Amino acid sequence: MNHHDLEHADPPFPELGEEVELFLETEAREGVLLYERDGELQKKPMAPWERGLKARVPVHASPFRYCFRLPQGYLGSHGLERTLPRYDRFFHLLAKPLPPEWALGAVFYQIFPDRFRQGRPELAPKEGAWLYGGRPIRKKAWHEPPGEDGAREFYGGDLFGVLEALPYLEALGVEALYLTPIFQSPSSHRYDTEDYHRVDPHLGGEEALRALYEALEARGMKLILDGVFNHVGATHPWFQKALKDPSSPERGMFTFYPDGSYASFWGVKHMPKLDYASALTQERFVFGKEAPVRYWMRLAHGWRLDVAHSIGEGGTNRKNARWLRALARAAKEEREDALVFGELSYDTVPTLRAHTLDGAMHYAGFAHPVMEWLSGRDLHGNPVALEAEELWRALFDHYAALPLQLRHAMYTLLSSHDIPRALWRLRGDKERFKTAYALLFAFPGSPAVYYGDEVGLSQPNPYEVWRGDPYCRAPFPWDEALWDKDLLAFLRRLILLKKTHPALRLGGLLPLKAPPGVLAFRRRHRGKEVWAFFAKEEVRLSLPRGVDLLSGREVAGEVEARYLLFEPSE
């Protein structure tokens, strides 16, 4: 067996130019480290160490690309190959700046502020207080389900409510909060920002943000804000100037076409797209002291960049990697331990290998294939027949392709404000839902719980109406009589295991033999292992002596389970 992962790089987070020692667990007694430099492949003979081979080499570039030549072939990120693999199948190591240590394997909790908890009812918008899309906004009662009005529906959740809920979140075991946008906006989702320097008064303003930040700091918890830097709201004063005065400096911040139309997010005209070819856009969003990505680092620990894959120049994503890198560096210049990850809805690998962000929302490499396997339908409701063996190949392919240091900083999820809730997709099957969440917490990365999933919150729309937004954004049910206490206890146990077992938090990912139809893998860290098994229905597993981590019981021999996190005895 050959194995190379983050724990086999010393130091794991090197400076550019610093020497790093690379270790390979292998039975081979000789080998050569091959690495790409200036278009050529360099060779470094490897020396023996107690579990295989090692070599020391300076990290001359980021990414640093390498593989191992062994007597039986070439070992890259995707395993042993007889011929030299493509560079994209090499291992990729990055130099600093890199994800902060606190973020590796950290447990996140996503909150949609208007729908989580109401702290001060007087802050809530009044019925018909303004027009949105030409129609009056609606004030809804907390128990009412969300409807088609979506962005015009306000429930009155605020940041004081989040502050009040911190004891609940702390007891759940949450380590970091990710809030969808909190800056002033005319919609309840607030992705159409009209003032980046003003926390929305209906959420409590900067007073509430400061109180929340300080309370989180006191608890050792982190706060991630949503950075909507691809587009602004059409009511933003900068866009209004650009729209009304073609000679204004702000005109260049946006992409206008000869017919008077302009580039916007997904063609939605109330979200005009920023043009990062503009020096004024660069100053106001990246390099300037008042750029929001810098300004709010005094009251937050990082950013999730909205539609990060779309940010760029000229109404496109041209030079996307350059501007993602610049935004991340700007945040880290203000706060060294800042975490900046992106909404990369599709293939994250090219962007993350370009040394841009600390990680990404793990849709393509985790959420989508896992839910396809368990639900039999894809994100859009189309039938999918995915087998456990195919799921493993998809999961491992994405994992192996990532730079080593980003594998544990990926924001790994099942539900979010943009896609249908996992429980709804599973037609309320809570055993499959538990299987999904057990898999989430067993897999490498930073697991994220979407608010309410832990108590069984679902969606009001019938299964035939396949939609996430707006139905996945229902208010959190604070009446405990409505909670599924069994699910809540289950999630608490998973969170505790993630936080206390180094193999689950920082361990590498290795295959594990299992019966047909069972997804199985090993997590290993410094010689300690956790074995993970998952199936759609109960299966019989044959195990050595060890501990069922979810129940805490010792087990051995034949065991029946749908999901199992197992620590073998030494």
Automatic annotation (TrEMBL):
Keyword Glycoprotein belongs to the record: no
Top class in the EC scheme: hydrolase
Record InterPro entries: GH (IPR017853), GH13_cat_dom (IPR006047), MalZ (IPR017069)
Superkingdom per UniProt: Bacteria
Residue span(s) of domain Glycosyl hydrolase family 13 catalytic: 110-498
Keywords of this entry: Glycosidase, Hydrolase
MF GO annotations: alpha-1,4-glucosidase activity
Site positions (Transition state stabilizer): D418
Catalytic residues identified in the record: D306, E343
GO cellular component, one term: cytoplasm
One annotated GO biological process: carbohydrate metabolic process
Enzyme Commission number(s): 3.2.1.20
UniProt keyword tRNA processing present: no
Pfam families documented for this protein: Alpha-amylase
Signal peptide: none
The protein's name: Maltodextrin glucosidase
Organism: Thermus thermophilus (strain ATCC BAA-163 / DSM 7039 / HB27)
